[in-house]
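Lab meeting notes turned into a lecture example. A postdoc, R.K., suggested we walk through two folding results consecutively so the class can see how the record format repeats. The first protein's sequence and structure tokens come next.
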Amino acid sequence: MPPYTYQWYEGTTPIAGQTSTQLAITKNTAGNYTFYCKVTDSMGQTAKSNTVTLTVRALVPPAAQIISVSPNPGKVDQPITFTFTGNDSDGVVTRYEWNWGDGTPLVDGILGGNGVPLSISHSYKGSGTFTASLSVMDNQGAWSNPVSALLEVRQSQPPRAVIDSPLPSSITAGQQVTFSGHGDSADGVIIGYRWTSSIDGLLSTSSEFSISSLSIGSHTITFQVRDSSGTWSDEETAILEVKEATTLLWPLPLIGGFAVATAAVSLIHFSRPPSSTEVKQDLRKQRDREAKKEEKDREKGRPEIERGKPFLDLKTDSPPRIMGATSYEARLKVRNIGSREAKDVTVTADCTPGLLLDKQVEGIPSLEPGGERLLVFPFRVSEQVRKGVYTLRFEVRSRETWKQVRNRYARAVKIGLLSNAEKQENVQPLREWLRGKSYTYDELTSADHLVRCLLKYDLIILAPELELPQQWMRNLASFVENSQSLLVIDKMITSEEKLLAELLGYDEMRYETFKSGEGLLRIRDNEHFITRELALGEGIQLGQVWGNACMSKLTIGKSLIEHYIREESKNAAVIPALTINEFTEGKTVHLNFHAEKSLSQLSLIVEKTVDWLLLEDIVIQPKAWSSGLRSLKLAPATLTELFQNILRKKGLK
């Protein structure tokens, strides 16, 4: 009779708390277990259920398997591929977990089923021996025991590229040139080559090739090799200048007074020198490229420093501008910023033709951490040096550090002094001043041959009272149009009025003959006064009429004059006025003289003007000039004498 009570038994032992019609139980041990239930009614009558046997089997964990690790040994920062799988006898594998053994975070993911292989890559940031371990999980949440693989990671030794063919320093556009090189590798075999040009980009992927289509300009030819580990070598470079070929046709004499239909002609080739703008652009590219390479070396050296190895930090310095037949110094500071001694440091110096190094090798037996050495490499510039970019190359290596290369680039500049042979009294003081300022120059008595003569120079200085025939004037204009510079000192005589106005910056110039007290300018016996509005291009003879004057808005000259007067004294002498002009691609400066007491500042002004015309990174700043005038000594006697003579001829002294 109801109600009924229930009690479950395991074997013959009652199970505590199991007094309902259903039994829920967990067994942690494999085996066979028997269960039954005893039922009691309200009258105390009992009944026993049938006995049920439960078999509990042990849970079998999945198994992980590493199939392969490649490459082993591997290289620092080189991906290493791990191929693996997993199996589960009583279910299916679902996930994996890798521990790379280098302190980086664990990596997990999903597996596709029993026995399905999967690959994953990992890059080690340092060298050494590492244990990478793998675990897999099945669909019942059971993890396998980890399996591991031992691998060695080595510091990569890049291969070395060598340019075999001795390249010419220059060729003519269209001329064929052959490039040949090879490589050495301690880690494998050479399997790849790469030749590039700083102008034309990729040239070839062969060890040897010939080409005749290089663009005009100064090329930095770069050669690299790649070994079987996939590592590219450091760049090996060579400078190759490709010049434009100008063809002049000279007909042969006629035979017997008759023109022959198949008359032969003689071809004479001239190479156009690079323009000053092309040289500056090449210099800028080279320096930018070197800066990126230095930053790459520093990044490459950080792991070495962290691992307690020596690392050499290099800083170079050399003159940015060089001139022929002059001596200079290049400096290299070598500093050990690692935490271990650098032994047997060797510095090898090299340079492009035209520069002559006094020494090429210097050694440092030992450099302690934090220690530094300053090495000085004197060099000379050949008298035959042409304008362009020249390279000083420093290769530094030690017993425990890789090779580092530093390149310093210098711009070789050329100055020409153009004068009339019959007026040497105006030229000699300029010659002596140029020598006194270490400016090397060539004496020019003709401006006829633009390609063969003028374009070899960055700057042409026109001596005072220079008479310019029409063709000379036009050649000088072409010279400036090709991005060269022109410095005109005092007056010049030519019939090319319009071209002269454009060249010297008198764009809104007007020509007038003045009498005493007329116009905005007061002129009496060739003495004059500069207003705040106009600059007088005094001393320029246009056409055949002496005494004409050209005027334009004041530019730098006005700022310079006003600032000097304001800073120094209201009674100070007016310094020479400068008219600065950007004529097409080039630059011109016209120096005018308007007062007899303006000579004590002349040397500084002319020197700054020459620097500005030669180098684009020098900017004319009137304030900076005037601040330097206070402590300025008198100009060299030769230059002062020259302009005293000029003023005397004008009736001002």
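The second example is placed directly after the first for contrast:
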Amino acid sequence: MLHEYGNYASQLGPYLQNFNRTRFHFIDGQALVKNPDPEFYKIESFLELDHELQFKFNRTKGFPCLDKPIPFCLADSKGRSRGTSKKAQHPEEFAPAETDKIRQFFRREMVQLFRILYPKLKITKFCQDPDTYRFAWLEKVLCPKIQR
């Protein structure tokens, strides 16, 4: 079942064969949660819309909510909690070996996805400073473990 998730490049393949790459806009979900303003600016630009959306972090909910043009936040029953609970652990903390196996399993697929997202960028260049790029989460799969 795991193999059905995370095969983004394979799932995109048929669409990219039939439609021009310029007709696609890829959204960095991690950036959308951490700093939504620049990510929504890119979406608005792609859709040729006025740049109106602005977000503000909501401490109670633990994620950004729309501030302008109108204040709006998802109901408590929507989405995932991204609060600061001390109980929540990332799988790397309690199952590092299994996390590495999963990353290795998806590595080839993530290399293909990287080439779709960054057709002119070399992975080695990306790995030098992944935080300066969108989709920085790919670092965990693509970049060798280097102490920075």
